């Protein structure tokens, strides 16, 4: 087993670890460990909420979640010799849930189980929050490379374990640019629910081992971890799994690489705000450097080579959406609206087999669906498609002459 350079006791909050991680991006957060190009090492991770979600049949924890506390990142890891303008090469050699040699099921996410959530519109929302404004939750039990949920009967998904969030620390200049442009967006509709973006917020900021007079300043400046940005960040790409290689732009000396938000499984888009099978766990990585790689490859964003670990289903029912919204209004080449319409059509389809709308929403979040931009040139309609693997269901969901066989499948966990 590789040396663990960032260790997490899953029974404790990230704030209580011997070396705490962080939940904001800032160049002044100190490195927690140092490695060299060519090293192979392990990083332990808490689940993204730091244990706020429990293995029970209520969504009160999702409803009441303190979002300012998230995401919990392990790191930063300094890579010796890394300089601004380099590309940090990260090979994901292995990823897995936290239980390891512990009992099969423990109290923390990753210890034999994970979860998928629908966030309330008033607390984070999600891609389909206007249709599903209330909180919901599904607990998944891990069985080797597969998972089933008591809240989603009749579904068994294969794992495509990956890290949802990783990247190098931003430079002070890049951080200022993030904050400028995101605040400008917020200012266009400052009262919107959910908000258009999340500005820096000192409340609940965790800044690793940073101490002294710098803490207050850094907490005011540090960027939230919610969106993807130029450095990578919360990209939630299900293909960044075992065997993948990612090239991250370096912005500060030492790179200061951090990682978290591990997923047991996820579909394209992670269409709920908590739309993967979330867990704590471990990541084994190999690192290297491509000197001056940003210039050599014009790499203004991360570049990656996907691994081959993800499940390969070969039979699908697929749904199409175009850029005409639910009210019938025409939009010009809007792929977001087109994908939303494909998702809503898939949800309506699954309800004919007995799953509720909330259950169907959670299935599309966690299952390895494939989302594609199928047409982006034929004005005025973008066309997106959603490929739903039939093999995850205990019934044949393919359309036929006899119509769907409707079975009562209960409901996901809801809030009281």
Query: What does the main sheet amount to?
Result: 12 strands, mixed
Low-confidence stretches: none
Order of helices and strands: EEEHEEEEEEEHHEEEEEEHEEHHEEE
Proportion of β residues? 25-35%
What does the radius of gyration come to?
Answer: 21 Å
Shape: globular
Helix content: 10-25%
CA-CA gap between termini: 44 Å
What is the SS-derived class? alpha+beta
Total strand count, please? 21
* Number of helical elements: 6
Mean pLDDT: 96
* Assembly context of the chains: single chain
EC number: 3.5.1.49
Keywords: Hydrolase
Protein name: Formamidase
Organism: Actinomycetospora aurantiaca
If you had to describe this structure to a student in words, what would you say it looks like?
- This protein has 416 residues and is α+β, with helices and mostly antiparallel strands.
- Helices cover 14% and strands 28% of the residues.
- The protein has six helices and 21 strands.
- The strands form three sheets. Strands 2, 4, 6, 7, 8, 9, 10, 11, 12, 14, 15 and 21 form a twelve-stranded mixed sheet that branches. A six-stranded mixed sheet has the order 1-3-16-5-13-17, with no helix packed on it.
- A hairpin with an 8-residue loop joins strand 14 (257-265) and strand 15.
- The longest helix is centred in the C-terminal third of the chain and has 17 residues, at 335-351.
- It starts with a strand and ends with a strand.
- The mean pLDDT is 96.
- Its EC number is 3.5.1.49.
- Keywords: Hydrolase.
- InterPro entries: FmdA_AmdA, FormamaseFmdA.
- This is Formamidase.
């Amino acid at each position: 087993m590789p040396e663990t350079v960032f260790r997490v006791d899953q029974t404790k909050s990230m704030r209580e670890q011997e070396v705490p991680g962080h939940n904001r991006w800032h160049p002044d957060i100190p490195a927690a460990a140092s490695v060299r190009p060519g090293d192979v090492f392990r990083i332990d991770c808490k689940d993204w909420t730091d244990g706020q979600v429990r293995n029970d049949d209520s969504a009160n924890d999702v409803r009441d979640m303190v979002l300012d506390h998230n995401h919990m990142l392990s790191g930063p890891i300094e890579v010796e010799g890394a300089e601004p303008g380099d590309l940090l090469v990260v090979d994901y050699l292995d990823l897995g849930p936290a239980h390891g040699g512990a009992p099969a099921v423990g109290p923390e996410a990753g210890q034999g189980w994970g979860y998928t959530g629908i966030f309330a519109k008033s607390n984070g929302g999600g891609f389909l929050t206007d249709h599903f404004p209330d909180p919901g939750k599904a607990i998944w039990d891990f069985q080797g490379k597969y998972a089933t949920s008591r809240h989603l009967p009749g579904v068994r998904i294969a794992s495509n374990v990956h890290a949802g969030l990783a990247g190098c620390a931003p430079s002070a200049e890049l951080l200022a640019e993030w904050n400028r442009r995101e605040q400008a967006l917020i200012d266009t509709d400052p009262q919107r629910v959910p908000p258009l973006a999340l500005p820096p917020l000192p409340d609940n900021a965790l800044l690793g081992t940073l101490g002294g007079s710098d803490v207050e300043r850094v907490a005011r400046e540090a960027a939230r971890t919610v969106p993807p940005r130029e450095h990578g960040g919360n990209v939630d790409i299900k293909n960044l799994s075992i065997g993948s290689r990612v090239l991250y732009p370096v912005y500060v000396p030492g790179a200061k690489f951090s990682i978290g938000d591990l997923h047991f499984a996820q579909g394209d888009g992670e269409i709920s705000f908590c739309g993967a099978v979330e867990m704590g766990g471990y990541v084994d990585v190999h690192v290297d450097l491509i000197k001056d790689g940003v210039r050599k490859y014009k790499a203004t964003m991360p570049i990656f080579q996907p691994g081959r670990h993800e499940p390969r289903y070969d039979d699908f029912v697929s749904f199409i959406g175009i850029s005409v919204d639910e009210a019938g209004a025409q939009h010009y080449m809007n792929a977001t609206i087109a994908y939303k319409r494909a998702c809503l059509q898939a949800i309506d389809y699954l309800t004919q087999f007995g799953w509720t709308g909330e259950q169907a929403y959670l299935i599309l979040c966690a299952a390895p669906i494939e989302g594609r931009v199928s047409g982006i040139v034929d004005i005025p309609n973008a066309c997106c498609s959603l490929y739903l693997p039939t093999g995850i269901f205990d019934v044949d969901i393919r359309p036929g002459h006899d119509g769907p066989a409707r079975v009562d499948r209960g409901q996901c966990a809801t809030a009281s």
